[in-house]
Every structure is written in C-alpha cells, then in structure tokens.
Design brief:
Length: 227
C-alpha cells in the first residue's frame, strides 16, 4: 500500500502542495506569485478535503526546507511543524536544490541556480542514478558566484570516472520549484524526523540580519574611535 504523504513547497515564487495516495499524486499551485502566507493553508485544506484524507492519517509531511526565499522557507517550515505537532506526525526535510533532479531523465547532471542576490546564487550539481535509488552531489549545495560554481563543477567532472552526460542549468525564473518533486525526493531518500527538529536550510544570513550586524559593527567602531 502506498503511503499517504503531504508535500509543501514555499521556497520559490510559486506555492505548490502535493498529496500522494493510493489513487496517485495530486498537485495544486497558487494562482499568483508570492501568495504563500495567504494561500498555503487553504490549499492544504482543499487538497486533503478533495482527497478525503484526514491530516492525522498521513504517514508524514514533507517540506522543501531551502535554500530560497527566507520568508517562504519560514512559512513552509512553520506550517509543517504546526500541522505535524497537532496531528502527531513526523516530517521529512527536503533540501530544495536536490529536488530539482526530478524534472529530468536520470543519469544527467542537474544544476539548479536560485537567486541569492548580491551577484550570487544558491547552487549545486546533482546526478540521479538511472535506477533512481542513489543521488550523487558532484558539487554540494551552497551559495556562490556562478564563476565559482563553474570552477567547482569543472573540478568535479575532471575527477569523476563517470560520463558527464547531459548537463542542465535550471534557474528558478524558468523552472519554479514543485511540491511534486519534493514528494518524490522524500519517498526516495527522506528520513522522517520529529517536527521539533525541523529548521530551514538558510545557507546565508538574511539580508535584514546582515545589515543589522553591519550597522552594529559600524556603531561599535565609531564608539571605539570616539572613546
């Protein structure tokens, strides 16, 4: 019997939610961009209700944990934690970058590129085995310039004994993240954990936090000069 699983994707511009049951997979997307806060729970309720599924009957909740939009990550993770706590469920934390491999044929190299601002991208290079039972990270997920990524990928390919095959760069403006991909990653590689251990995968400090630290550091330096 197939496990009944709810998957949430809120790290990108478009919200999506997927539900897997014995009858297959149903996925719904938000009608507009950046509507995560207003649309997430109504979408979840509509999807569960349409499938005749009670929240408490889920095997677990899978959530795309980042990197991506800081606000989006927090919304998805917070919602997954809250629902899991109420229903007594476990959660699966899916690394957003890795889930992109499910948009393409296994065997090739998928390189997701998500805008991280300041001339950088959240990126990595991944290859799903032909059988779909192994996921190789040729370049681990991190925040880099594209030039630094190119160098890291070239080094990885040089040291690899496997054929590179097709290499695809996938940008978030061209290929929005999908809860169905999160679901497939969770079913293949997910390890359910307690909801209390679920945290976003930030990879860098939020812009507001960075600016605050810079301001405090400048103020402290100014105070030291004037003392």
């Amino acid at each position: 019997m197939k496990k009944t699983v709810l998957a949430i994707e809120t790290t990108g511009r478009v919200l999506s939610v997927a539900l897997s049951t014995d009858n297959g997979v149903v996925c719904r997307r938000s009608d507009g961009e950046l509507r995560h806060l207003t649309d997430l729970m109504p979408t979840v309720r509509g999807l569960l209700g349409g499938g005749g599924v009670e929240l408490s009957s889920l095997a677990y909740i899978a959530v795309s944990a980042g990197p991506g939009s800081f606000t989006g990550m927090r919304i998805g993770v917070s919602a997954a934690r809250a629902m899991a706590q109420v229903a007594g469920l476990h959660v699966v934390k899916a690394p957003t970058l890795e889930t992109f491999v499910y948009g393409y044929e296994p065997g090739g190299i998928v390189c997701p590129m998500l805008d991280a601002r300041r001339g950088q991208v959240y990126c990595g290079a991944y290859r799903l085995s032909p059988g779909g039972d192994a996921l190789e990270a040729l370049v681990s997920g991190d925040v880099r310039t594209e030039e630094a990524f190119d160098a890291a990928l070239a080094a990885a390919l040089h040291s690899s004994t496997a054929e590179a095959g097709v290499i695809r760069r996938v940008r978030d403006e061209d290929e929005p993240q999908s809860a169905e991909k999160v679901l497939r990653w969770a079913e293949a590689f997910g390890e359910p954990i307690c909801y209390s251990k679920l945290e976003p995968i930030y990879m860098r400090k939020a812009e507001a936090q960075r600016k605050l630290e810079e301001r405090l550091a400048a103020e402290a330096a100014g105070a030291a000069v004037n003392s």
